[in-house]
């Protein structure tokens, strides 16, 4: 059995969660590239400010992630 479960959020972003890390006290997951606004070689849900992607695209992608999970410290 595949230990990761795929979730698709209301924003269009997709992410995996591992069943062994499931807890009410831990938000975890691994986002895929689906659902983001970056284009070209950064196509998708790029969230790295150091990648060379446009700042506005990265910022919009980070806002999409924050809508899925209430993460502090991400702007």
Structure, described:
With 75 residues, this protein is an alpha+beta fold. The protein has one domain (4-68). The chain has 1 helix and 3 strands; from the N terminus they run βββα. It has a 3-stranded antiparallel beta sheet with strand order 1-2-3, with no helix packed on it. A hairpin with a 5-residue loop joins β1 (4-8) and β2. The N and C termini lie far apart (36 Å).
Strand percent estimate: 15-25%
Uncertain runs are none
Class computed from helices, strands and strand pairing: alpha+beta
Number of domains: 1
Please outline what is shown here.
This protein has one helix and three strands.
Give the helix/strand layout.
Blueprint: E1 4-8, E2 14-18, E3 30-31, H1 55-68
Antiparallel strand pairs: 1-2, 2-3
List keywords for this structure.
alpha+beta
């Amino acid at each position: 059995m595949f230990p990761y479960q795929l979730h698709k959020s209301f924003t269009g972003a997709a992410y995996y969660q591992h069943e062994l890390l499931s807890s009410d006290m831990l938000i975890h997951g691994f986002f895929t590239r689906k659902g983001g606004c970056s284009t070209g070689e950064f196509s998708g849900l790029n969230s790295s400010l150091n990648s060379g992607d446009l700042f506005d695209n990265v910022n919009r992608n980070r806002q999409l992630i924050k809508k899925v999970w209430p993460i502090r410290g991400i702007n």
